[in-house]
Design a protein that fits this description.
The protein is an alpha+beta fold. It is built from four helices and five strands.
Length: about 140
């Protein structure tokens, strides 16, 4: 597909057609959008989704993350702390002998919901319970 400016209407006259350039992108779960984290932490989460493949493990270095986010390593560390405190990312510190390696980031993409009992007629669902963190 050749990147071009999207026309106001598709060639067949159907308005609202989505034109996608050949760019890489990350799909962020809606529960993360609603998570109580800063914009910087949200951007960091989005960037972490770009690393790795079909597993939940990513291993970019902290300086690489800082460069991509145009922030300091300290700012990345603060944002990562928010993500870990919210239970969205788990950090695994790696070493080889005395040498420190890049961290392994376990990125959560699904919510952890406690299994609910079957609902009977007339029972209501608490809409906020699906966004609660269950350690």
């Amino acid at each position: 597909m050749t990147p071009s400016a999207p026309p106001s209407e598709a060639a067949d006259g159907a308005a609202g057609t989505l034109f996608v350039e050949e760019q890489r992108f990350a799909i962020v779960p809606e529960w993360v959008i609603d998570a109580p984290v800063s914009d910087g932490a949200f951007r960091l989460y989005s960037l972490l989704l770009r690393y790795g493949n079909s597993t939940d493990c990513r291993m970019p270095s902290r300086p690489t993350l800082a460069r991509r986010l145009r922030r300091s390593v300290d700012a990345v560390d603060r944002a990562m702390r928010q993500l870990t405190e919210a239970g969205i990312v788990r950090v695994e510190h790696r070493r080889s002998g005395e040498q420190f390696l890049s961290n392994r980031y376990h990125v959560r993409t699904t919510t952890k919901c406690a299994r609910r009992p079957s609902m009977g007629a007339g029972q209501a669902v608490n809409a906020t319970s699906s966004h609660e963190h269950h350690p």
